[in-house]
User: Fold these one by one.
Assistant:
Number 1:
Amino acid sequence: MTSLSVIVPLFNEQESLTDLLDQLYAALHDRELRQLFEEEFNFEIIMVDDGSTDGSCRLISNMIMSRPEIRLISFQRNFGKTAALSAGFMAATGDYICTIDADLQDDPFAIKELIIKMQEGYDLVSGWKQERKDPLSKTIPSKLFNLVTRLFTGISLHDFNCGLKLYRKEVTRRLELRGDMHRYIPVLAEWMGFKIAELPVRHQARKFGSTKYNSSRFFSGLFDFLSVLFITRYLRRPMHFFGMAGLTSFFLGFSISLYVTLDKILLHKPVSNRPILFLGILLLILGVQLFSTGLLGEMLSTSSSKESLFAVRETVNLGAGQARKFGTIE
Ligand code: UDP
Ligand code: MG
């Protein structure tokens, strides 16, 4: 039996929900989709209400009476889309996990196409809003975001932050998301060694409600970008980052101070009125600080858990108990 979990993060989307669930049910009962799985197929729809203050939560509770495949997780307050997705991933029981936005901008019938693509041998298939139906105030910053992410990570996706994505369960189990990191899920997945692909999907203009994101996201996005870059490169070797910067700074500071000192001793030039002296001192102190930060980082990463040190695809001949430790057994 193959199962699919569809996760829908939602924040004040009550006008869209009835249409969305109708379309999702139609898409998931589609014969062609079911034929993609040779065995029996079932699905669940996990609605994650991210602290909505409209009637979204009540509406979903009512729908559950007639549609038992729907599950609901309702947050105490608004925690953001990353938290909503994480909660959905934790609750999902399917072999395949699909995420889709609640605002009807993503097309539920595209799920079938994502599955076909995944069956070519991918672990994560990400939608690509090739013809994006959003105002310029969204599309231009988004193009920039995708360009920068592509340049820094070397991953050739056009659209990192599409709400429509399909994962194998092994991927969602290993994702550890914080902040607003949902925008970088493909980067984290690729770093863990999963195979990722992209597929153009239809995109609709928002019919109801308004976007939940404004320009402030670009600042928080910058910090998340830095942490993702740091995590994917230096999580387990912070000294390589801080140590290098620290040593460079210390070496420069030391050279400057030596030069000023020799000038004083050999050429009897006064020291106190030379701005370069302060630069030398600053670089020396900075160097020591960066180096100590690296040491602290090493201590922290040594004492923290071994998880996310590596990702194991399968284990052979290891015994159930041990294999479970590597997450390769149910
Ligand atoms: N969303 C959420 N929590 C938030 C903000 C957004 O669960 O704090 C949901 C929202 O309801 C929608 C999806 O995330 O289903 C994408 O949000 P939105 O459509 O506002 O983003 P945009 O498409 O404008 O980038
Ligand atoms: Mg949207």
Number 2:
Amino acid sequence: MSDRRSFLKTAALGTTGAPILLSGCAPGADPDLQEGGGPDPDPVRPVALSTWAHGIPANEAGWAILTGGGRALDAVEAGVRIPEGDPEITSVGYGGFPDRFGRVTLDACIMDESGRCGSVAFLQEIKHPISVARRVMEETPHVMLVGAGALDFALAQGFQRENLLTPESEAAWERWKATNGETRPIINMENHDTIGMLALDQAGNLSGACTTSGAAYKYHGRVGDSPIIGAGLYVDNEVGGATATGWGEAVIRAVGCFLVVELMRGGRSPQEACELAVERVIEKNPDWREIQVGFIALDKWGRTGAFCIQPGFNYAVYTPEEGNRLIDAGSRV
Ligand code: ASP
């Protein structure tokens, strides 16, 4: 039985042996993926896919690794380190907007082709949380470290302690304090734009990374979806990967990225899976008209998808045929 055939056999049943049903949808609607259906999609490799415009330089950094025959895992780590280290990007890493007490607190996670994963949350004073998350994955028996424990671990691993609050972000925080004091981000404003990145390497392996300074002016101690495996990121090498951006609380309620991957396992294309996951987020969040949530997805064959609630979310996709492009995602509204 070919890889595709055995994949489809499991896909049609889901993990429990029962068909996967979502409201209003029959399983396995993609005719290209039906058992006995059309031909296998032509695989596209490598592929890099990232959220928002800062995904363009992230893809660029990852592409050098992918086209050199490197691992998707190395590509996604190298890719997201670019916005993490850029002080002009106020939603990730260094220069990220702080919480309501003026502290920059970071969340990140990473997942490789074998299902290994690592995560840090509420981490302060370390510029590259994604690399700490990778060390958690590779150097500890755990998946997730948080707060002071994550910082201790990072320092023990040789990471340098740094002030991540730039004068510009501090000034923005001072303005916020003086004006409205609201915590919930304005839709699509630069106060919440996580970098999530997925890559498929030449060997056909998938990995993903997700890193953020979270919602600007959040409560001290707040952790969003981005470091939570299954919510902000999920990768299954037999199926595909997904990552999320937007109001993390809404993504957590729907376990968004696990849902996207399970929908692909059930035969949905990456695009269909993202659209259905957005519907689920809407079902689970009565305030959905006031929030933004977006998903991107990449499957085993290099097919991509993206969808969001509100217009304004864009993503970067890099393929051998079409280069590195910024695309506006379709939206529910
Ligand atoms: N999802 C992130 C969080 O809630 C922020 C974002 O992507 O806009 O922390």
